[in-house]
Amino acid sequence: MNIHANDGVSQTGQDALAAAGFTITTTNVAQEQLVDYINENNITGLLVRSATTARKELIDACPGLKLIGRGGVGMDNIDVDYAREKGLHVINTPAASSASVAELVFAHLFGAVRFLYDSNRNMPLDGETKFKSLKKAYAGGIELRGKTLGVIGFGRIGQATAKIALGLGMDVAAYDPFMEEATVAVDFFDGQSVNVSVKIKSFDEVLAQADFVTLHVPAQDKPTIGAAEMAKMKEGAGLINLARGGVVDEEALVEALDNDHLGFAALDTFVNEPTPAVKLLMHSKISLTPHIGAATLEAQDRIGTELAQQIKELLG
Ligand code: NAD
Fold first, then answer.
1. Residue 149: left (phi > 0), alpha (psi -120 to 50), or beta?
2. Looking at the structure, do residues 112 and 71 belong to the same domain, yes or no?
3. Among residues 38, 169, 232, 296, which is most buried (max CB within 10 A)?
4. Could you confirm whether 121 is annotated as catalytic?
5. Is the peptide bond before 274 cis (omega within 30 degrees of 0)?
6. Of 244, 250, 283, 306, which one is the catalytic site residue?
7. Residues 147 and 87 grouped into a single domain
8. Are residues 193 and 77 in the same domain?
9. How many angstroms does the Cα of residue 243 sit away from the middle of ligand 1?
Protein backbone atom coordinates (compact mmCIF):
# COMPACT_ATOMS: atom_id res chain seq x y z
CA MET A 1 0.00 0.00 0.00
CA ASN A 2 1.27 3.47 -0.88
CA ILE A 3 1.47 6.35 1.56
CA HIS A 4 2.37 9.82 0.32
CA ALA A 5 3.62 12.44 2.80
CA ASN A 6 3.23 15.66 0.81
CA ASP A 7 4.72 17.92 3.48
CA GLY A 8 7.32 15.30 4.47
CA VAL A 9 7.48 12.98 7.46
CA SER A 10 10.40 12.14 9.76
CA GLN A 11 12.84 9.36 8.92
CA THR A 12 11.66 7.41 11.98
CA GLY A 13 8.11 7.54 10.60
CA GLN A 14 9.29 6.47 7.15
CA ASP A 15 11.29 3.59 8.64
CA ALA A 16 8.33 2.41 10.76
CA LEU A 17 6.01 2.49 7.74
CA ALA A 18 8.53 0.69 5.52
CA ALA A 19 9.01 -1.97 8.21
CA ALA A 20 5.25 -2.52 8.23
CA GLY A 21 5.29 -3.09 4.45
CA PHE A 22 4.08 0.30 3.22
CA THR A 23 5.70 2.17 0.33
CA ILE A 24 6.25 5.78 1.31
CA THR A 25 6.88 8.78 -0.95
CA THR A 26 7.75 12.26 0.29
CA THR A 27 8.05 14.38 -2.89
CA ASN A 28 6.32 17.71 -2.38
CA VAL A 29 3.68 17.86 -5.12
CA ALA A 30 2.05 21.24 -5.91
CA GLN A 31 -1.48 21.44 -4.52
CA GLU A 32 -3.06 21.71 -8.01
CA GLN A 33 -1.26 18.53 -9.17
CA LEU A 34 -1.92 16.51 -6.05
CA VAL A 35 -5.14 14.83 -7.22
CA ASP A 36 -3.42 13.48 -10.35
CA TYR A 37 -0.41 12.36 -8.34
CA ILE A 38 -2.57 10.48 -5.84
CA ASN A 39 -4.60 8.74 -8.55
CA GLU A 40 -1.68 7.92 -10.85
CA ASN A 41 0.38 6.47 -8.00
CA ASN A 42 -2.44 4.55 -6.27
CA ILE A 43 -1.95 6.43 -3.02
CA THR A 44 -4.01 4.97 -0.16
CA GLY A 45 -2.87 7.30 2.60
CA LEU A 46 -2.13 11.02 2.28
CA LEU A 47 -0.09 12.64 5.06
CA VAL A 48 0.01 16.42 5.43
CA ARG A 49 1.29 19.00 7.90
CA SER A 50 -0.17 22.49 7.69
CA ALA A 51 0.84 23.48 4.14
CA THR A 52 -1.10 20.95 2.02
CA THR A 53 -4.90 21.05 2.11
CA ALA A 54 -7.25 18.08 1.74
CA ARG A 55 -10.59 19.61 0.86
CA LYS A 56 -13.88 18.11 -0.37
CA GLU A 57 -12.80 18.45 -4.04
CA LEU A 58 -9.64 16.42 -3.47
CA ILE A 59 -11.51 13.81 -1.44
CA ASP A 60 -14.15 13.44 -4.20
CA ALA A 61 -11.53 13.27 -6.93
CA CYS A 62 -9.43 10.55 -5.23
CA PRO A 63 -11.68 7.49 -4.73
CA GLY A 64 -8.69 5.27 -3.84
CA LEU A 65 -7.79 7.36 -0.82
CA LYS A 66 -8.58 5.60 2.49
CA LEU A 67 -6.76 7.74 5.01
CA ILE A 68 -5.71 11.33 5.56
CA GLY A 69 -3.18 11.91 8.31
CA ARG A 70 -2.18 15.26 9.79
CA GLY A 71 1.26 15.36 11.34
CA GLY A 72 0.39 17.73 14.17
CA VAL A 73 -2.70 19.05 15.88
CA GLY A 74 -4.97 21.51 14.01
CA MET A 75 -6.90 19.89 11.18
CA ASP A 76 -8.31 23.12 9.72
CA ASN A 77 -6.60 22.29 6.38
CA ILE A 78 -8.67 19.10 6.05
CA ASP A 79 -12.43 18.73 5.50
CA VAL A 80 -12.53 16.25 8.36
CA ASP A 81 -16.29 15.68 8.67
CA TYR A 82 -16.72 15.28 4.93
CA ALA A 83 -13.83 12.83 4.69
CA ARG A 84 -15.25 10.75 7.56
CA GLU A 85 -18.73 10.79 5.98
CA LYS A 86 -17.10 9.35 2.87
CA GLY A 87 -15.62 6.55 4.99
CA LEU A 88 -12.02 7.79 5.13
CA HIS A 89 -9.95 7.55 8.28
CA VAL A 90 -8.73 10.97 9.41
CA ILE A 91 -5.98 10.93 12.01
CA ASN A 92 -3.63 13.39 13.71
CA THR A 93 -1.01 13.37 16.44
CA PRO A 94 -2.44 15.62 19.11
CA ALA A 95 0.15 15.24 21.86
CA ALA A 96 3.40 14.91 19.92
CA SER A 97 4.27 18.57 19.58
CA SER A 98 3.01 20.10 22.85
CA ALA A 99 6.41 20.31 24.57
CA SER A 100 8.02 21.89 21.50
CA VAL A 101 5.35 24.57 21.14
CA ALA A 102 5.58 25.30 24.87
CA GLU A 103 9.36 25.73 24.63
CA LEU A 104 8.91 28.14 21.71
CA VAL A 105 6.58 30.24 23.87
CA PHE A 106 9.49 30.67 26.27
CA ALA A 107 12.02 31.22 23.49
CA HIS A 108 9.89 34.23 22.55
CA LEU A 109 9.17 35.25 26.12
CA PHE A 110 12.75 35.20 27.40
CA GLY A 111 13.79 37.10 24.30
CA ALA A 112 10.96 39.59 24.54
CA VAL A 113 11.53 40.71 28.13
CA ARG A 114 15.13 41.62 27.17
CA PHE A 115 14.22 43.09 23.73
CA LEU A 116 16.22 40.47 21.82
CA TYR A 117 13.78 40.59 18.89
CA ASP A 118 14.79 44.23 18.29
CA SER A 119 18.39 44.00 19.45
CA ASN A 120 19.04 41.21 16.95
CA ARG A 121 17.75 43.47 14.19
CA ASN A 122 19.77 46.53 15.19
CA MET A 123 23.09 45.16 16.47
CA PRO A 124 24.22 44.01 12.99
CA LEU A 125 23.37 47.47 11.61
CA ASP A 126 24.46 49.81 14.40
CA GLY A 127 26.27 47.72 17.03
CA GLU A 128 29.68 49.00 15.96
CA THR A 129 28.84 52.70 15.81
CA LYS A 130 26.02 53.14 18.34
CA PHE A 131 26.83 50.56 20.99
CA LYS A 132 26.16 52.89 23.91
CA SER A 133 22.80 54.13 22.65
CA LEU A 134 21.69 50.55 21.92
CA LYS A 135 22.83 49.50 25.40
CA LYS A 136 20.61 52.24 26.80
CA ALA A 137 17.69 51.35 24.55
CA TYR A 138 17.71 47.71 25.64
CA ALA A 139 18.31 48.30 29.34
CA GLY A 140 15.25 48.11 31.57
CA GLY A 141 14.40 44.51 30.78
CA ILE A 142 12.57 42.41 33.36
CA GLU A 143 12.80 38.89 34.81
CA LEU A 144 10.10 36.27 34.28
CA ARG A 145 10.33 34.93 37.84
CA GLY A 146 7.47 36.21 39.96
CA LYS A 147 5.43 37.41 36.98
CA THR A 148 2.01 36.03 36.04
CA LEU A 149 1.51 34.09 32.83
CA GLY A 150 -2.08 34.13 31.59
CA VAL A 151 -2.86 31.01 29.58
CA ILE A 152 -5.97 31.14 27.38
CA GLY A 153 -6.93 27.58 26.43
CA PHE A 154 -5.66 25.07 28.98
CA GLY A 155 -5.38 21.93 26.86
CA ARG A 156 -2.22 20.02 26.01
CA ILE A 157 -0.06 22.96 24.93
CA GLY A 158 -1.49 25.37 27.50
CA GLN A 159 -0.60 22.91 30.26
CA ALA A 160 2.86 22.16 28.82
CA THR A 161 3.48 25.92 28.81
CA ALA A 162 2.24 26.23 32.41
CA LYS A 163 4.71 23.54 33.53
CA ILE A 164 7.65 25.54 32.24
CA ALA A 165 6.27 28.72 33.79
CA LEU A 166 5.85 27.04 37.18
CA GLY A 167 9.38 25.63 36.95
CA LEU A 168 10.64 29.18 36.49
CA GLY A 169 8.82 30.50 39.53
CA MET A 170 6.05 32.23 37.63
CA ASP A 171 2.42 32.33 38.72
CA VAL A 172 -0.05 30.88 36.21
CA ALA A 173 -3.62 32.06 35.69
CA ALA A 174 -5.55 29.99 33.17
CA TYR A 175 -8.86 30.38 31.37
CA ASP A 176 -10.63 27.50 29.64
CA PRO A 177 -14.42 27.42 29.31
CA PHE A 178 -14.40 23.62 29.49
CA MET A 179 -12.41 23.34 32.70
CA GLU A 180 -13.09 24.19 36.34
CA GLU A 181 -9.85 23.10 37.95
CA ALA A 182 -6.52 21.74 36.85
CA THR A 183 -3.46 20.15 38.34
CA VAL A 184 -0.30 19.94 36.30
CA ALA A 185 2.69 17.73 37.02
CA VAL A 186 5.98 19.60 36.85
CA ASP A 187 8.55 16.95 35.95
CA PHE A 188 12.24 17.18 36.76
CA PHE A 189 15.12 15.53 34.91
CA ASP A 190 15.76 12.98 37.67
CA GLY A 191 12.23 11.55 37.69
CA GLN A 192 10.89 13.72 40.51
CA SER A 193 7.55 15.32 39.85
CA VAL A 194 5.55 17.94 41.72
CA ASN A 195 1.82 18.35 41.28
CA VAL A 196 0.76 22.00 41.22
CA SER A 197 -2.83 23.13 41.12
CA VAL A 198 -3.42 25.95 38.65
CA LYS A 199 -6.08 28.56 39.15
CA ILE A 200 -8.74 28.47 36.45
CA LYS A 201 -10.16 31.98 36.34
CA SER A 202 -12.60 33.95 34.25
CA PHE A 203 -11.40 35.27 30.91
CA ASP A 204 -11.48 38.86 32.18
CA GLU A 205 -9.59 37.99 35.37
CA VAL A 206 -6.81 36.38 33.37
CA LEU A 207 -6.59 39.37 31.02
CA ALA A 208 -6.47 41.79 33.93
CA GLN A 209 -3.94 39.88 36.06
CA ALA A 210 -1.46 38.54 33.53
CA ASP A 211 1.84 40.18 32.73
CA PHE A 212 1.93 38.03 29.58
CA VAL A 213 -0.99 36.35 27.87
CA THR A 214 -0.34 33.26 25.76
CA LEU A 215 -3.02 31.72 23.54
CA HIS A 216 -3.50 27.99 23.12
CA VAL A 217 -7.02 27.69 21.77
CA PRO A 218 -8.13 25.90 18.58
CA ALA A 219 -8.73 27.91 15.38
CA GLN A 220 -11.61 30.34 15.93
CA ASP A 221 -14.22 31.98 13.68
CA LYS A 222 -13.54 35.35 15.25
CA PRO A 223 -10.56 36.65 17.21
CA THR A 224 -10.36 35.53 20.84
CA ILE A 225 -8.31 38.66 21.55
CA GLY A 226 -9.50 41.80 19.78
CA ALA A 227 -9.32 45.48 20.68
CA ALA A 228 -11.74 45.13 23.61
CA GLU A 229 -9.78 42.27 25.18
CA MET A 230 -6.44 44.04 24.64
CA ALA A 231 -7.87 47.06 26.45
CA LYS A 232 -8.48 44.80 29.48
CA MET A 233 -4.85 43.69 29.56
CA LYS A 234 -2.28 45.35 31.80
CA GLU A 235 -0.38 48.35 30.48
CA GLY A 236 2.86 47.05 28.98
CA ALA A 237 1.73 43.40 28.92
CA GLY A 238 2.94 40.97 26.27
CA LEU A 239 0.70 38.92 23.97
CA ILE A 240 1.82 35.63 22.47
CA ASN A 241 0.04 33.76 19.69
CA LEU A 242 1.47 30.40 18.71
CA ALA A 243 -2.01 28.90 18.22
CA ARG A 244 -3.53 29.93 14.90
CA GLY A 245 -3.70 33.03 12.75
CA GLY A 246 -6.91 34.94 13.45
CA VAL A 247 -7.01 34.09 17.14
CA VAL A 248 -5.57 37.57 17.63
CA ASP A 249 -6.99 40.56 15.72
CA GLU A 250 -3.85 41.70 13.90
CA GLU A 251 -5.08 45.24 13.17
CA ALA A 252 -5.96 45.79 16.84
CA LEU A 253 -2.62 44.33 17.88
CA VAL A 254 -0.62 46.79 15.79
CA GLU A 255 -2.68 49.62 17.24
CA ALA A 256 -2.20 48.45 20.84
CA LEU A 257 1.57 48.20 20.26
CA ASP A 258 1.76 51.56 18.50
CA ASN A 259 -0.08 53.38 21.27
CA ASP A 260 2.12 51.63 23.87
CA HIS A 261 -0.75 49.88 25.63
CA LEU A 262 0.93 46.52 24.97
CA GLY A 263 4.67 46.15 25.48
CA PHE A 264 5.35 43.47 22.89
CA ALA A 265 3.83 40.61 20.96
CA ALA A 266 5.20 37.27 19.80
CA LEU A 267 3.71 35.59 16.76
CA ASP A 268 4.32 32.19 15.20
CA THR A 269 0.96 32.06 13.40
CA PHE A 270 -0.60 34.64 11.10
CA VAL A 271 -3.91 35.37 9.41
CA ASN A 272 -2.52 35.32 5.93
CA GLU A 273 -0.01 32.46 5.92
CA PRO A 274 2.22 32.06 3.98
CA THR A 275 2.19 35.79 3.21
CA PRO A 276 1.74 37.53 6.58
CA ALA A 277 0.99 41.25 6.73
CA VAL A 278 4.16 43.30 6.20
CA LYS A 279 3.22 45.68 9.01
CA LEU A 280 3.52 42.76 11.42
CA LEU A 281 6.79 41.57 9.92
CA MET A 282 8.29 45.07 10.07
CA HIS A 283 7.02 45.92 13.55
CA SER A 284 9.81 46.62 16.01
CA LYS A 285 7.80 45.30 18.99
CA ILE A 286 6.96 41.89 17.55
CA SER A 287 9.04 38.77 18.03
CA LEU A 288 8.50 36.63 14.93
CA THR A 289 8.78 33.02 13.82
CA PRO A 290 7.35 31.42 10.65
CA HIS A 291 4.96 28.81 12.14
CA ILE A 292 7.68 26.57 13.57
CA GLY A 293 6.03 25.65 16.89
CA ALA A 294 6.14 21.92 16.19
CA ALA A 295 9.23 22.02 14.02
CA THR A 296 11.76 20.36 16.32
CA LEU A 297 13.55 17.12 15.56
CA GLU A 298 12.02 15.51 18.65
CA ALA A 299 8.44 16.54 17.86
CA GLN A 300 8.78 15.49 14.23
CA ASP A 301 10.14 12.10 15.33
CA ARG A 302 7.21 11.61 17.70
CA ILE A 303 4.76 12.74 14.99
CA GLY A 304 6.22 10.32 12.43
CA THR A 305 6.22 7.40 14.85
CA GLU A 306 2.65 8.10 16.03
CA LEU A 307 1.34 8.40 12.46
CA ALA A 308 3.05 5.16 11.45
CA GLN A 309 1.56 3.36 14.47
CA GLN A 310 -1.96 4.52 13.66
CA ILE A 311 -1.60 3.73 9.95
CA LYS A 312 -0.41 0.20 10.78
CA GLU A 313 -3.47 -0.29 13.00
CA LEU A 314 -5.96 1.14 10.50
CA LEU A 315 -4.60 -0.06 7.16
CA GLY A 316 -2.05 -2.74 8.01
P1 NAD B 1 -6.12 21.12 22.92
O2 NAD B 1 -7.37 20.70 22.23
O3 NAD B 1 -5.40 20.13 23.77
O4 NAD B 1 -6.42 22.41 23.82
C5 NAD B 1 -7.21 23.49 23.42
C6 NAD B 1 -7.93 23.99 24.65
O7 NAD B 1 -8.60 25.20 24.30
C8 NAD B 1 -9.01 23.03 25.16
O9 NAD B 1 -8.77 22.73 26.53
C10 NAD B 1 -10.31 23.79 24.97
O11 NAD B 1 -11.24 23.53 26.01
C12 NAD B 1 -9.83 25.22 24.99
N13 NAD B 1 -10.69 26.18 24.32
C14 NAD B 1 -11.50 26.01 23.26
N15 NAD B 1 -12.10 27.17 22.93
C16 NAD B 1 -11.65 28.09 23.81
C17 NAD B 1 -11.87 29.48 24.00
N18 NAD B 1 -12.69 30.15 23.18
N19 NAD B 1 -11.25 30.11 25.01
C20 NAD B 1 -10.41 29.45 25.84
N21 NAD B 1 -10.15 28.14 25.72
C22 NAD B 1 -10.75 27.47 24.71
O23 NAD B 1 -5.16 21.68 21.77
P24 NAD B 1 -3.58 21.90 21.87
O25 NAD B 1 -2.89 20.67 21.42
O26 NAD B 1 -3.23 22.47 23.18
O27 NAD B 1 -3.38 23.00 20.70
C28 NAD B 1 -3.76 24.35 20.91
C29 NAD B 1 -3.51 25.18 19.67
O30 NAD B 1 -2.12 25.15 19.29
C31 NAD B 1 -4.27 24.76 18.42
O32 NAD B 1 -4.81 25.93 17.80
C33 NAD B 1 -3.23 24.21 17.51
O34 NAD B 1 -3.58 24.37 16.17
C35 NAD B 1 -2.04 25.07 17.88
N36 NAD B 1 -0.75 24.51 17.50
C37 NAD B 1 0.19 25.35 16.94
C38 NAD B 1 1.41 24.84 16.59
C39 NAD B 1 2.45 25.73 15.96
O40 NAD B 1 3.27 25.24 15.19
N41 NAD B 1 2.49 27.00 16.29
C42 NAD B 1 1.70 23.47 16.78
C43 NAD B 1 0.76 22.66 17.37
C44 NAD B 1 -0.49 23.20 17.73
1. beta
2. no
3. 38
4. no
5. yes
6. 244
7. no
8. no
9. 6
